[in-house]
C-alpha cells in the first residue's frame, strides 16, 4: 500500500523544513517507491533554463564532459536540477512509467504517454542514471533519468500533429496567450508591448481572435521590420515602433494609434527592465495592466501607478491557468502562417 | 498667460529626457511661475520615508545640523527629496498657495486649504528655503518650502475632526484598506496576512464590514498577544498565530480556521520577504491574491503560483484607488476603538 504525500510535494522536502520543494535546498529523489498521489516519469531529455545553462557552460569552459559532471553533481547534491547560482531549473520530456494508486483513472494520463513537464525542474525530484548527450546550442541534455510529478504538478501530453521541438517552444510560454484569452473580450482595445517576440506573437494572435470586429489590437515593437512582419501576418490592427522603456513617447504613440483613446488592457511581454510606466500610462481608469515579463519590478509597478494616480488593475502574470497548454498549441494549429514562422525561427 | 504642462509632469524633467519625474535624476523646481495645470503648495513639513530617513540619519551620525544639510543638498541637486541610496521619498503637509488657471474651479481645493500629498516626494518638485526643525523620532522635518502637485497628483484635504498626525498615520497606508473595500463582497472568505499591523488592522476592519454575516475574516499574526488584540477588537472572526514565511504551516492553520475550505481572497500586508507562497496556497482556484507588501517579489509570485498549479488572480497592490483617502479616514471615524488604538500606538 502506497503512502499518501502532500498535494504540493512538501513530503519530499529534506531541508529546510517548512518550505515547499522550490524553496528547499535539498529534496528526496528516491524513485524506488512512489507515493500514492505522485507520477513517476522516465525522463529522456532536460531542457535546461537558458540563464542556468549559460552559467554552467561558462563555468565549465564549454567542455561537454565538465558540463555533464556539474549537472550530475547538482542533482546528486540537491535531488533536483536547480542551478545554485541562478536559482532556475528548466523542464523535462519523458514517458509515464507509473501512476500512483490515488491518481489512477482520475487523470488523463496512462503509462507510456509522452509528456512534457510544465512545472520547473527547480522544484521537481530528479534522479539521473546517465548523461547521454549535451546539446549546448539548444540548452538540451539527453539523459537516462527518472522524475516525480506531484498531484498539483502540471504537464502536457505531447501532441501527434507537430514536432516535439515546436510543441516545447510554444509550451514554454503557454501562460501568456492563455491569460490573454481570458482578459480580452469583444470590443476590447489592447496594447501589447513586445508583440514580435515568441510570447508576444501568440498574445497578439489570441487578442485579435478575442476582440472581434469592434475591438482593436495595437502592438508595440522595437524596429520597423518587426512592425511590418506583424502587419503582414495580420497579428495586429496597428504596430508602433518605440522603446518600451520610454514612457512619454510610448504614451503619445499608443494613444495616437487608438484614436486618442486610452486602452482597456495592456499586456507586457518585453523582457527588459523599466517598462512598468509604459504599460500603466496608456490604460484607462479601471482598465487592466497584465505584467507577464519576469523583468517586472513589483515596487516600480505599485509605486508608479500611485505616483501618476492611475486606478488600474495590475496583474502578476501567472504561468498557469486552466487549459493553458491546449490554448497555446491550438493557436499554432489554427494559424499555419504562425506555425511556419515558429518552425523557421525557434527550432 | 500660463503655459500648459503635461498631466503627469514630464515638462519638469531635466535629465534624463523621456522618463517621468520619479525615474528622473533631476527635475525643475522653479516655483516663480507655475504651469496652468499645476498646484503650488506652501510646505510646512516633510514626512521623510522611514528607510530614507534612517539612511540619512546614520550617514550623518544622528547630528541634526548635518541631517538638515544633507536634505538641502539632495533637494538642491535633484529638485526633489529623493534619497539617492534608497530611491524613496516621503510625503508633505502644507497649504494651497496657488491653483493653475486650467484647474481653478475644477478641483475640490481652494487657496488656503490644508493638504497632505499622497504621491511620493521622490517625484515632486520641491524647493526648500529653510529647514526649521528636525524630529528624528518621527522622521519629520519642519520646513519653509514650496512644492508642486501635477494635474495627475494625489492629495487629501486634512480633516477637521482628527489630529494632523492621526490623519497622516492612516493616509500613509490608504491604498490597502480601500482596495480591500473593492475586493471583499458579501459572503467572501478572507485571509489577511499581517493583520495586526497598521495597514492590516484597517484591512481587517474593512473586510469585516464588507463580508457581512455570511462571510469570514481570518487574520494571520505573529504572536498570541496580537491574536488576542484582534479578537478583542472584533477585527476578525478568527486569528491564527504563525510565521507568514512558513507556507506549509500557514496552509494547514488557515484551512483549519475556515472549516477546511480554501479562501476567496488573501491580502498580504506583511512587510517581510518570502511570504508569496503563504498567500497563494490557501486561496481557491479563480480566487484573488492581493499583494500589498513592498517586500513582494514579482518572480517568486509568478513562478510560485505556476509551480503549484494554482489558477489564482494575483494583484499588484496599487497605492491609489478612487476615494482611498476618504475610505481610510472614515474607518477611524466609524470605529472609535480603532481610532483610540491608533492614537495610542502611532502618534
Task: Characterise the protein shown here.
The structure is a homodimer. Chain A has about 350 residues and is of the alpha/beta class. The first copy, chain A, is about 30% helix and about 25% strand. The first copy, chain A, contains eleven helices and 14 strands. Chain A has helices spanning about 50-60, 65-80, 165-170, 175-185, 200-210, 225-230, 245-255, 275-280, 300-305, 325-335, 335-345; strands at about 15, 25, 40-50, 90-100, 115, 125-135, 140-150, 155, 190-195, 215-220, 240, 265-270, 285-290, 315. In chain A, the strands form three sheets. In chain A, strands 6-7-3-4-5-8 form a six-stranded antiparallel beta sheet. A six-stranded parallel beta sheet of chain A has the order 11-10-9-12-13-14, sandwiched between helices. The longest helix of chain A is centred in the N-terminal third of the chain and has 15 residues, at about 65-80. The termini of chain A are far apart. In chain A, about 55% of the residues are buried. At the A-B interface, helix 7, helix 9 and strand 14 of A face helix 7, helix 9 and strand 14 of B.
**Quaternary class:** homodimer
Order of helices and strands of chain A: EEEHHEEEEEHHEHEHEHEHEHEHH
Largest inter-chain contact set: A-B, 52 and 52 residues
Strand proportion of chain A: 15-25%
Figure out the total of helices of chain A: 11
Strand order of the largest sheet of chain A: 6-7-3-4-5-8
Low-confidence stretches of chain A: none
